[in-house]
Design goal:
The protein is α+β, with helices and mostly antiparallel strands. Among the domains are: 101 residues, no CATH class; 42 residues; 41 residues, no CATH class. Helix content is 40%, strand content 15%. It contains 13 helices and ten strands. Helix 4 packs across helix 5. The longest helix has 33 residues. The protein is elongated.
Length: 398
Amino acid sequence: MGERKGVNKYYPPDFNPEKHGSLNRYHNSHPLRERARKLSQGILIIRFEMPYNIWCDGCKNHIGMGVRYNAEKKKVGNYYTTPIYRFRMKCHLCVNYIEMQTDPANCDYVIVSGAQRKEERWDMADNEQVLTTEHEKKQKLETDAMYRLEHGEADRSTLKKALPTLSHIQEAQNAWKDDFALNSMLRKRFREKKKAMLEEEERDQALQAKASLAIPLVPETEDDRKLAALLKFHTLDSYEDKQKLKRTEIISRSWFPSTSTSTSSTSKASSVLKKLAQNRRSVPAASSPITVGHLGIVRRRSREVPESPQHMAETLKSGEPRVPAGMAQDRPTSPQDCSQETTELPKNSGPPGQEGSCGDRPQTPPGTSQEAANPQDKAQPCGLSSSLVADYSGSESE
C-alpha cells in the first residue's frame, strides 16, 4: 500500500524540498486526512473493535464481540505512566452513543455510558492465566529481599507444573510449521483409509450376494471377534463316521411298527377302499345271493378223454361218480354247489333223465343212431366233465 502511494505521488513545479519539507506541509494537511479533522481537540478517529458482547441502552439490541466502529479516541488520564484512552462511537442500529475506556490495572475495557456488558467473565486464577501484579506487591518486591526470594520460589514451582503443558503446546505448534509435509501426510492417510473402505465394501457385497441378504452390514468390533472365537461348530470328519452313525440309528430302531404307524396305514387303506367302492359299478342287492355269474366266472367243458362204457355203467349203478385224481379239486363239495352251477348253464329240452347233465354241448334227439353209436357221449355229472375258469373280461380295471 505504501509503495503504491509512494510511486503515485505528484510533485508540483513550485515544490521546494528545502522550504516545504514534504508534500503534506506543501498541501497544509495531515497524513491521516479526514481521520485527523478533530486533532486540534485531541481527538483522533480510529477503527475500534468491540472487545466483548454488550447490550445497547438505546435500542436494547445485542452487539457481538468483534463488531467494528469508527470511534473517536481521546486521552483522559494515566495509570501511573500508562495512558488511559476513551472511545466514543455511535450505535449502527440507533442514534445512541457508546463510550468505553481502557483499564490498565485489570487489563480490560470498562463501559462508561450507553451500554451494558454481557457477563461472561471468569476468574483468571482459576483459568490459569497470567495475573497482573498489583502496585503494593511491586513496591514490596523492590524493597523486601526476602519477599522477592519467596516470590521467585513460588514462580519456579509454578513453572515446573506448567512445563509439560507448555512443551506439548510447543510440539503441536512445531508440527504445523511444515505445511507441505503435513498436507502429504494427511493425503496419504486419506488414500489408505479410502482403500481399506473399498476393500471392506467389496467383502460386504460378496457376503450379501452369497447369503442373499438385502440389509446393510455393520462393521465388526472387538467384542464380536471374541464371541466368534468362543463358538465352535462340530461336523462329521469323514464318510465312515456318517456310515457308523447311520448304522447305529438303524440298529437302535424297533423292528415292529408302532401303534401310530399301524393306525395311519389302516386309515390309508380304508380311504383307498372307499375310493374304489365309489368308482366301481353298482353291485346287486344284498337280498339276492351271489352266484358264479356275478363273479364273472364261466364254466367251460374240459377236454378229457371219455371214459369206457363199462366204467360209465359202474358209475350209474353205484350212484357215485368216480373222479380222477387230477380232477378231484375241481369237483363241487356239496350238491348245493352243483345245483347252483347248473342253474347258470343254458337248459336244454331233453328228457328228464338228462336234467343233471351239463348243457354246454349240443343235444341230439333221442333214439338216433348217433346216440346209439356213441354211448360215451351220455350225460355225465358236472364235477367230472367240467371245470371253473375265471373270466375277468367284463370287470373294470381299477
